[in-house]
Amino acid sequence: MPNDTDHLGRPIVVVTGMGVLTSLGQGQADNWGALRSGVSGIRRISRFPIDGLRTTIAGTVDFVSVPEPSAPALSERLAELVMEEAIAEAGIGRIGDFPGPLFLALPPVELEWPQRFAMAAASGANETVTYDDLIRAAGGGSFAPYYRRFLFGSVGENLADRFGTKGSPVATSTACASGGTAIQLGVEAIRRGEADAALVVGTDCSVNPESLIRFSLLSALSTRNDPPSSASRPFSKDREGFVMAEGAGALVLESLAGARARGAKILGVVEGCGEVADGFHRTRSSPDGKPIIACMRNALTDAGLEPDAIGYINAHGTGTPENDKMEWIGVSTVFGGRAGSIPMSSNKSMIGHSLTAAGAVEAIFTLLTIRNGLLPPTINYDIPDPTLPVDCVPNVARPASVRHAISNSFGFGGQNVCLVLGAVE
User: Fold this and answer.
1) CA-CA distance, 1 to 180, in Å (whole number)?
2) Residue 2: per-residue pLDDT
3) Of 200, 228, 325, 333, whose CB neighbour count within 10 A is largest?
């Protein structure tokens, strides 16, 4: 990288610190060791009763706990851990004084059943508890901690206070593309000269009974409960749904000029971003694949690269029949006859689908793939699907030298984000 600007004269954006936590473990070393070995982090759920549930497995992070369990509390704790790792690796600022803004990918926040039951018990209603009863109980003044915790902005505000990021935190929730959206926001802030550095984090701990039931009603989840490790099988003919998971990923983004000036170690380059929302359906992709196609093409154009430059695709690869099919339609259209020979593996076969956090987690895994010269496998690939002639790096990791890679994130509601990530030259 002889220059500090890209093909459009914008500041080049680089990554100088990363932190990750998934069902495979905490930190880059544990996660990469498990990924390269094809280890699954999917396990039987033990955090809450699973009697009567069709899906009883998930990629939970039971090795992390919080005093009062809830999705926002656990999401915040995971975010803290990965942000600490990323800032330490970047060697920029310090905890409590980060020299840039915070961009956060966060799941929807709503009151959960333990809190609802507590409010119902305090309402004084003897029989059926109505919504008005809950409102009166909430207004009594004893549930202020619930109010503060279950505000959508609470996680971002708490993290911004703890890490001393600059300006108001920007929290986004664009379904399973949220992590990619947060990275794009950080990249754009640096390109526009609004910041020399940005802290980006995606976090999600939505594995709870209500979420499992909702996704189950959509027929989106795998019901292959035994053994749990075999449930997530992207691109395989016998795939039948995704596996919910928890996790978090954080990246320190900087302008190349700023990173060079302070002598930082550069881990990779965010070369291009593409984002297209199709609005076709609340859960289904547009059947012609045009939004996904446009998303990848926009990212390549933003990076100033032709399709032939891409050596690896970190697939969204959820393992649902519809999603894998639509991703292949997009890839085969953008890359033409070369599509089947581009390695395209799915981390979700091992970690499950970390939803809002997935885009950030998988961007980190893509950068680790480039840096280590090894493609993580897609495990559980037992029965090839003749309609998806994908080189999914089946079951065993593969050495490869990759200079430019794509990380795809496609979410419910037609949210599509594609990142082009590059090696340090």
Assistant:
1) 24
2) 63
3) 200
The yes-or-no answer on residue 176 being catalytic is: yes
Question: Which tokens hold the place of 177?
Answer: 């593309």
Is residue 43 within 8 A of residue 23, CB to CB? The reply is yes
273 has catalytic annotation: no
- Span 13-110+151-422 CATH architecture: 3-Layer(aba) Sandwich (3.40)
Residues 379-424 have pLDDT tens digits of: 999 999 999 999 999 999 999 999 999 999 998 777 899 999 999 9
pLDDT for 191-232, tens place per residue?
999 999 999 999 999 999 989 999 999 899 999 999 999 999
Q: Coil, strand, or helix at residue 180? A: helix
CB contact at 8 A, 410 and 285: yes
Q: Which of 316, 392, 404, 418 is catalytic?
A: 316
Can you give the pTM of this predicted structure? 0.94
Of 205, 273, 353, 392, the active-site residue reads 353
User: Which tens digits make up the pLDDT trace of 87-98?
Assistant: 999 999 989 999
Domain residue limits, the chain: 13-110+151-422, 113-149
Q: What is the Cα–Cα distance from 376 to 346, expressed in whole angstroms?
A: 8
d(CA 373, CA 297): 25
Selecting among 176, 205, 392, 418, the annotated active-site residue is 176
Inter-residue contact 377 to 398 (CB < 8 Å): yes
Average pLDDT of the segment spanning 321-336: 95
Is 316 tagged catalytic?
A: yes
Q: Is the dihedral of CA 26, 380, 385, 398 positive or negative?
A: positive
